[in-house]
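Q: I'm teaching a short session on how sequence maps to structure, and I want students to see two examples side by side rather than one. Could you give me a first protein with its sequence written out and its structure tokens following it? Keep the formatting plain so it prints cleanly on a handout.
A: Of course. Example one:
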Amino acid sequence: MNKYIQIHASDNVAVTLATLSKGFRIDVNGKQITLEEEIPSGHKVALTDLKKGDLVIKYGFPIGHTLQAIPAGHWVNEKNICTNLSGITDYQYTPEFRKPVYKDEHRTFMGYARENGDVGIRNEIWIIPTVGCVNGIALELADRFKTSHEYSGVDAIVAFTHNYGCSQLGDDHENTRKILRNMALHPNTGGVLIVGLGCENNQPDEFRKILGPYNENRIKFLVTQKTENEFEEGLKLLEQIYAVASHDKRTEQPMGKLRIGLKCGGSDGLSGITANPLLGIFSDYLVAQGGSTVLTEVPEMFGAETLLMNRCKNAGVFERTVRMINNFKDYFLRNNQPIYENPSPGNKAGGISTLEEKSLGCTQKSGSSIVQDVLEYGEQISETGLTLLSAPGNDLVASTALAASGCHMVLFTTGRGTPFGTFVPTMKISTNSTLYQRKKDWIDFHAGQLVESETMETLAPRFIDYVLSVASGKRVQNEIKSYREIAIFKQGVTL
């Protein structure tokens, strides 16, 4: 196994692939450098003498500048470098398109064909509250139905709780309605029981209207204030939904039907070397099959956003990308918060020192495909290919937004580890071996092999096969353990 890597020939730092002790010698381009201090795995070491104010180059791009002189062989981290980013930026559209690497291989998976022509990868019954006041009822209905009923024929019965649906104004209220609507219409569900209270802002009758045309045999409403026994009535409605959903069967479907969310969790210094490039290859491959991928976490695009902007298919998509980026910067400024207050403590411990460094690793998940569309929060996928989605970096909120946009599953790279999942399969891909070995009950796929014994040429096909197996019904860890929840983006006033 290699113990360090210079990612790009122009980089003036190398990344350690294991913890290296003081006195260890590295050889880069024929130049030997002795480490002057111990450097943890995933962190950076200076390859040349850096003066105060010098640019630090990683991935072939500046990731910040030095706050002090850093001699060759010394540790480069958040204490001695800082971001180059500041304020609102003017952008110019400079298209840079790469020729597609992959061709349509006519791959398939086993999915559920829906009446509207869509395809799901799960056939679940969901209980969705219109308001947080009935969370307990939703949970109890799910428990009662599961414990008193043999429910072969559906993949799961899940109640998804949240804290909203009342005392919200403006965009917050509409965002809640949009996310819940998109859940109710998601192809991964064979049926939905929508549970309301009756007096909430998110009125069940009004919510019914925003659903548009829907199958009344698969989506049913329970307004608890209007029934004498909400559990008796709710279980009766669940039985009716189950009678329909339990007859759904998997059939062979083209891979191009898949819509996959790309999500970066607690990134470390290896994420931009292992798991994120792996997702980039997968994204390009799926796009070549006629499928769709969605990239979000707008604050984690800052510093690398021009790489995405230059891949926008036309000036209109470019302008919408600029608007998405600047709107999020305005969001920070409106709340008197620094725009570039990132990375997190976990990121820093894992070797990420600046937002540019994090963003350059993050954006690799999108591969090299053309950006076809840009979605506002709560909007749904309408174009095939690569789409950008406006949502924050928070893992729960961003993953929920990806699922609500229509993604069948979320591919979630992580260097620190997390057990959570949203309302669609949330596949955890480890960036390093330490995490994989310690948390095998969290991690679904090990990408850290790429700096040990595997090449991208051998691992990427196995990863594609694994994603297809999950699409065909193989459960990931968050499903096995029932770690499933939703989080809705809140920006404004609560009454």
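Q: Perfect. Now a second example for contrast.
A: Example two:
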Amino acid sequence: MAKVIMVQGTMSNAGKSLLVAGLCRIFKQDGYRVAPFKSQNMALNSFITEEGLEMGRAQVMQAEAAGIKPQVCMNPILLKPTNHVGSQVIVNGEVLGNMKARDYFAYKKQLLPDIKKAFRKLEEVADIIVIEGAGSPAEINLKENDIVNMGMARLVDAPVLLVGDIDRGGVFAQLLGTLMLLEEEELAIVKGLIINKFRGDKSILDPGIEMLEKKGGIPVTGVIPYMELSLEDEDSLTERFSHKEKGNIDLAVIRYPRISNFTDFHVFEQIEGVSVRYVTSVQELHQPDLIFLPGSKNTMGDLKWMRQNGLEAAVKKLSEEIPIFGICGGYQMLGNQIFDRDSVEEGGSIRGMELLPIETSLEKEKMRSQVQGVINTIHGIFSELSGRSYTGYEIHMGQTRYEEDLSGNIDEKVVVTGERENIYGSYVHGLFDCGNIASVMVEALARKKGISMKTRTDMDYQRFKESQYDKLADTLREYLNMEEIYGMLREAQME
């Protein structure tokens, strides 16, 4: 049986995902077989495993930190919000269906056997399992039949580390308030408190820590400094969305309400002199060097949103001067028409942006597969991408085809262009992570602007991420009491 430890937070974005990743890295460095686990994740950033199964990207990131391949048993339940009151429910990597929040709340207990089975499968390959909670364990309206916070901890007899975010203020109230709202049996399994994202002189914080330990009755296991890391985020609270500074090469990503897989663009952030800005209005768009239309969990709804707030018109006007690149849902938007005959999203049909000679039919069956190969011949500013190797994955609900007046098999094309050579579309997530594809694109944009900009053509994005995991682990070793954490590890006992 694997030993277990769990990280819960006082709120979303308290830093749970990174702390789990860091602990995974530390345990790996110390010679253990370690794996991450999150019973239920809510995120629009997802990944496709080798088996063609869908899981949250946060657990993929944590698996990378642990030095193992991602497996869907690390995240047996994934909720992908489709609107404000409902989500697509994915169980064991496959779509179960769309549910309203209230319906899922009543149904979720039936998924407990799936959670147990996934956890047991993970126990077969791991010495230590680091479990991540979701949101806060103090959400009293959600505690009934909980399967992701204290319910999960009690299921596997996991000691809990409770994390608060001091950078957002009120960390003492966060931690003490959470403890006050826990039941006695829940409180008994909280073994340590962590103050995360601290800036400044810790000696000034010490009186507060003393008070916290006295009133809460639980030791502070560590005060983690604010870390400048570039690792993948999983939800809409990411700080990336607030970056507005422009670099020598300015890339704009349209941030629609149901943006998904914005991890596609993280690699560009590692290139010196490049800015990646997420924009929600015409006023924020300005004059970038390239516009990305990212994936979407509601392609038709997000296209309507762009149409209503003027971003569609602005993008189309700018497309006469700069390249536009759509990925997945953004690729579908670039076409002439989107049909939804089976009411996968909103039903009916919608006119696309009419920048690519394609049309898309949304279908109930989700396309899920890892892909690799060579980029087809393309023209325009990114013509140098032709013939370059790529790997990635596809995850979409829809089939796209050329309209009848254009010959060629669209299925054979990784990147699709039309008569206009500056419009590009692809279904492949992770396309820009491959080799030096991102560098080639940036250098092409620089030449167009008439500026000299040499990127690292030998940049290995995976190697860069490995260095970030090591940096994360080094920081946690310095500021966490690892002796106490190792003392908390104990065997899980499934009911």
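Q: What should students look for in example two?
A: Point them to this: The domain at 3-231+465-491 is CATH 3.40.50.300 (Rossmann fold). Also worth mentioning: The chain has 15 helices and 26 strands.
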